[in-house]
Specification:
Elements (H helix, E strand, L loop, with lengths): L1 H26 E2 L2 E3 L21 E3 L3 E2 L2 E5 L3 E5 L5 E10 L15 E12 L4 E5 H4 E5 L4 E3 L15 E4 L4 E11 L4 E6 L10 E4 L1
Parallel strand pairs: 1-4, 3-9, 5-15
Antiparallel strand pairs: 2-6, 6-7, 7-8, 8-13, 9-12, 10-11, 10-14, 14-15
């Protein structure tokens, strides 16, 4: 009897592992280049006059390696849950000017900001955190994550977050504290729920 119970538990465990593998594979998609996004400022909340079904979902797009492309290349990211967004890095501002004295970089560092746009092409609402998704690879091969700094001339979306209805676009800046003498070599974008997918990339 004990042997039968062990066999059943092993079988259930195998089914769970297979289900996870199928879920990961089904979420992967390969981005492709699309028409450039508008670089005109959009409200940080991503507000739009476009109508859309208000079915809310969290970001779940995943990608395989794409790029690196040049700045100004827009990539389409789609997945099996229905997410469909265009993402484009417009430019890298180095150094960036802090919005006030509270946002200055630590001694030995400077602020570098990435101006990026994201547009939702799906019927469902797309919600994500651009600060979590965007990283910079320095000329020292180190990966830098976003800081909470604000800079002159560019919003930080809605404290990094976007909630986009169909057709809505949000432009904003993701800012980093990078050591003096280290250049921003590459910008990576990797959606939050990526299940192991590789980022899309731009040469900075």
């Amino acid at each position: 009897m004990l042997r039968i119970v062990k066999f059943i538990l092993m079988f259930i465990g195998l089914l769970v592992v297979i289900g996870v593998i199928i879920g990961v594979v089904s979420h992967k998609s390969t981005p492709k280049a699309t028409a450039p996004l508008s670089s005109n400022p959009i409200t940080s909340s991503g507000a739009s006059t476009s109508t859309a079904a208000q079915t809310s979902t969290t970001a779940s797009a995943t990608t395989t390696t794409s790029g690196p492309g040049k700045l100004g290349t827009a990539w389409i990211i789609t997945d099996s849950t229905g997410d469909n967004v265009d993402v484009e890095v417009f430019k890298v501002i180095d150094p960036a000017t802090p919005a006030n004295e509270f946002y200055t970089a630590p001694a030995g560092d400077r602020l570098v900001t990435v101006e990026i746009g994201i547009r939702n092409q799906a019927a469902q609402v797309y919600s994500d955190d651009m600060n979590s998704d965007t990283t910079v690879v320095g000329s020292d091969s180190q990966t830098y994550t976003a800081s909470a700094d604000s800079v002159v001339g560019c919003t930080d979306f809605n404290y990094g977050t976007v909630d986009l209805t169909k057709g809505a676009q949000a432009n904003g800046c993701v800012t980093f504290e990078i050591p003096n003498g280290v250049n921003a070599a590459q910008v990576d974008f990797k959606p939050a729920a990526d299940f192991g997918g590789a980022p899309i990339q731009w040469n900075a």
